[in-house]
Automatic annotation (TrEMBL), chains A, B:
Coiled coil: none annotated. One of its GO terms (molecular function) is uridine phosphorylase activity. This is Uridine phosphorylase. Pathway: Pyrimidine metabolism; UMP biosynthesis via salvage pathway; uracil from uridine (phosphorylase route): step 1/1. The keyword Cytoplasm does not apply. The lineage of its organism: Eukaryota, Metazoa, Chordata, Craniata, Vertebrata.
Amino acid sequence: MTPGFNDEKNGGGESGNNVLVHNPNLDAMTEDILYHFNLGTATHDLPAMFGDVKFVCVGGSPWRMKAFIEYIGRELGLADPTNEYPNICAGTDRYAMYKVGPVLSVSHGMGIPSIAIMLHELIKLLYHARCTDVTVVRIGTSGGIGLKPGTVVITKQSVDASFLPRFEQVILGKPVVRSTELDSDLAEELQQYSKDFDDFETVIANTMCTMDFYEGQARLDGAFCSYTEEDKQNYLKEAYAAGVRNIEMESSVFAAMCKLSGVRAAVVCVTLLDRQKGDQLTSSHDILQSYQQRPQMLVGHFIKRRLNAMDKGYPSSRDTDKAKSS
Amino acid sequence: MTPGFNDEKNGGGESGNNVLVHNPNLDAMTEDILYHFNLGTATHDLPAMFGDVKFVCVGGSPWRMKAFIEYIGRELGLADPTNEYPNICAGTDRYAMYKVGPVLSVSHGMGIPSIAIMLHELIKLLYHARCTDVTVVRIGTSGGIGLKPGTVVITKQSVDASFLPRFEQVILGKPVVRSTELDSDLAEELQQYSKDFDDFETVIANTMCTMDFYEGQARLDGAFCSYTEEDKQNYLKEAYAAGVRNIEMESSVFAAMCKLSGVRAAVVCVTLLDRQKGDQLTSSHDILQSYQQRPQMLVGHFIKRRLNAMDKGYPSSRDTDKAKSS
């Protein structure tokens, strides 16, 4: 039952940090089919397709992840003149994947099981492609607690519905507890860059990750609700006291799996409403859309600065100015 | 903490079974926004749009649910001559929804949290639309245990990773256990209709519902694997001994929520492989596609027979013949 660590595939010539898998079976397989991506080691040259990836951004919505690749393509001066980015997973409707330069953008659907399938296959993809020094950021939406709607939260710790920083993975019918620790340096770095954006607040705080959007988050507007408004408010107060400032549905397994695979990881979510004031998303479509762009802008700015620091020669027009956020 | 039962909306004039919500807050809301469907009571006339729905088919993949509505439209003789079914949820990429006559087809993504969000909003939709006598069927894919790939499994009981027929819903941070009982008469009826299909087997058996596709289902080909082939085979043998013949990721919360809302529900999944013989989906695209059509054909046949029995005047060309399954 000892995990196998497969971290020697890059050979001795490279000094970067590899993406780790912990599965002694993988190297013995003649072919690895990444079923939900419609990709595979026998059918695709994964090192050629993905070997240069340094940043992976993931988010629930396929449309948002397409918008992100268009945005970052423009920001990095790598935009396709036709602005058409093919969906690399076009053969399936499970996930959507786009790439420009060293940036990969992948959708993950909603909830822990959906993102977990994607992350298993993403980690194997990065491993097979022999990627090094990869940073993975989840950009998402969330409900806020005690924050002005539109505030961006960089996750300090991802906690469960009891406010504990743990993710329970069931293996062979038995629960195995995993740490949901994220990279604190990366979180700090992102917060530093957030100061370049004048028109929204960014905070570092705990994020509660739930299994459900309605009863699991104490909403009063689901098909079923067996608790009172007072019960809800008390629960949100307890969460607030535990340092929780936003609630979403993927961060715990994201943190746990990224940590196991040795990639630097961060979670950057915008709050669409203050849950202490309501449950329904009543803001206009345009306002909600503009909120959703904020994590994209912050993470895009971070990627650009990082690439410039790595002296890759990408354009740096925005580096000396205040970043524009509109 | 007593649940409110909202089941009187149809008034005294109708005798059908209503779709129940258990939320005393709903009737007091001036507007109910079904956010992940991009529908709402103030913006859409839900009774006019959905009041005639008698059958709802749900499945993970939006493409498959589009294919299903095209199939059932043809089968019921209700096909749009252009064969174009607009996506009712076109304003969002979270779920896709299609309708023809009394049949609604909705995608739910992968995993319990994703289908749970959809079901909360679907149950509220059916309630607001004042639908009666609704049957909901999940048509999906699964891994089989000890069955020939392509076999269809009608779920008797949905069990968890410990083989218990229960679903744990966390509410205000505390677990609440719900029954995953499905309608046994409906399962039997579906199995009777399956005899009209010569070229595949259909069985009634238990279905294991897991939180994860890789480690949660004892696969050996994930990014992480801390157990041996022998551990895996022993776990699958235990599952088999508990009556489990297939494994998927949504049936438990589907059964629990349908039971709470008083709708008749069934789970009909095809097995894409025998997990005792492997983990990877190595069958050709065409074979996997043909397998995925089997639950659609069986449920389509069932709907057609039911509608004929209800004397709705839908075509009955296939009723006296053996159903064709190709």
